[in-house]
Amino acid sequence: MGESTPLAARGEPSEFVRRSWQAHPDQLASLRAEVRRWLTPLPFTEEAEDDLVLAVNEAASNSVEHAYTSPVADNTVELTFWTEPRAICVEVVDHGLWRVPSDQSNGRGRGIQIMQRLVAFVLIHHDNRGTRVLLRQPLPRARPNRSAVSAG
How many whole angstroms separate alpha carbon 98 and alpha carbon 112? Predict the structure, then answer.
């Protein structure tokens, strides 16, 4: 259940990786560590990396906590990670049921708002096959090379 399938080889940054975890709270730390590993070769600041990891964790936590009515070993949370020329994308997928968020404030239920504050683009789609959360974050622009900047 835990094999990564990167397209890149010989230590190059991965452009596409798909991985699946059991939908259980004990798996979230491993999921976060894997996302961090995927982000390592990319030019994010530590804060931007933390934000993206937290947003992915929120989406995965929602899957673990809300998607499946009864916990069984076949319940999964799947992550697909890919890079685009100017952005990074992470899709979080479960195969459970969408539950309409409660109107009652119990100090919880802010995961979607958190994701929307942390990542530039959040798209959530749910149907009878489960829920898909797409997180898309622009890559930071490269700083100009100081030697290439003219003095005049």
Answer: 13
Q: Which of 48-62, 66-80, 101-115 is predicted least confidently?
A: 101-115
What pTM was computed for the model? Answer: 0.80
- The strand pair at 130-138 and 76-84 is best described as unpaired
Closest CA to 22 of 41, 2, 39, 5: 2
- Domains, the chain, with CATH or none: 16-100+111-142 (3.30.565.10)
pLDDT tens sequence across 85-126: 889 999 999 999 887 766 655 556 688 899 999 999 999 999
- Would you tell me the crossing angle of helices 46-62 and 111-118 to the nearest 10 degrees? 150
Structure-token match 């119990």, residue found: 106
Give the chain's radius of gyration (CA, Å): 17
Length reported for the chain: 152
